[in-house]
Amino acid sequence: MPLPELTQHEIYRYSRHLILPHVGVEGQRRLKSGRVLIVGAGGLGSPAALYLAAAGVGRIGLVDFDAVDETNLQRQILHGTAAVGRSKLESAAERLRDLNPHVDLVLHEARLTSANAMGLLRDWDVVVDGSDNFPTRYLVNDACVFLGIPYVYGAVFRFDGQVSLFATPGGPCYRCLFRDPPPPELVPSCDEAGVLGVVPGIIGTLQALEAVKLLMGAGEPLAGRLILFDALTTAFRELTVHRDPACPVCGDVPTIRELIDYEAFCGVTPVPAAASLEVTAPELATELETNRELLLVDVREPMEWEVCRIEPALLVPLGSLEDRFGEIDRQRDVVMVCHHGVRSLRAALLMRDAGFPRVRSLRGGVAAWADHVDPAMPRY
Q1: Can you give the pLDDT at residue 275?
Q2: What is the model's pTM?
Q3: Burial of 85: CB neighbours in 10 Å, binned 0-12, 13-18, 19+
């Protein structure tokens, strides 16, 4: 298919590209004909989408199902204060169309799943993964391998970031680097662990750079290389990643030939018995008034404890819980507490398995306590 011509207005708009030796008119025409799908319009997807649109990529797809929350604004620069409560896709589309009206936007307001991934990812030249969880990363990787589409990977955690390129011909895939997911109890979310806002900006911009290079056929792609970024030292490191001949997806004899249940694979499928271990915030407030022997154990980190807490409570970060079992009376009623109720439920299950007979978890964590019991409690 012949490359699309540039209009006079596009020539003027992209003039700083056209005078570059590795871009020129042909490179800009390649960008105009390019199709990039971005999974997630959040911290990584925001800078990626902005720079891809500004660069003149002809068609950009966005997959997201969330609404803008005020806590997003510290890092998700596609969105502004006026967009709080709105669909992220609506907010993103408004900003991107203002940035570059020449770009064709394709919006998919949906959660990416094994049921829809092949259909949503098909017919794109590059997929940029802006997700923040392991099930989606494995899902995107496997779908890209099956479809033969390059997968631009990015991830952030607190002050660190990673970026690489997977699923290129002859190159490694994400599973070659991470064969198995880590235990879910060792993987706090962004809500739980925090992230310095500028870090996803840096990683997402590098993801956009990789997509632009791929579309233009310029430079050296990141296939087979993993870039590690440390914001506290402003240091980049590069690791070599080899294709694994025994990889279950892209190896010589693949054992996974279709999309699977990635929630179950990553161990995040809800536990059926978990509901019986939970107590709601209003129920806990009532119990605290009548049961003075009820013990609250807060499994968040000290930095979170400083922001807000339910008093009185014992602070025992989840990572040190097993080592501090001896500090908790096995005969008392115990309620575990965290930010949103995820870590506390893991802690309750861990304690139940260790022989604590009367342990529960605060459903929704301190966020639910602030919503239903103490509106004056700071939210984060």
Answers
A1: 63
A2: 0.83
A3: exposed
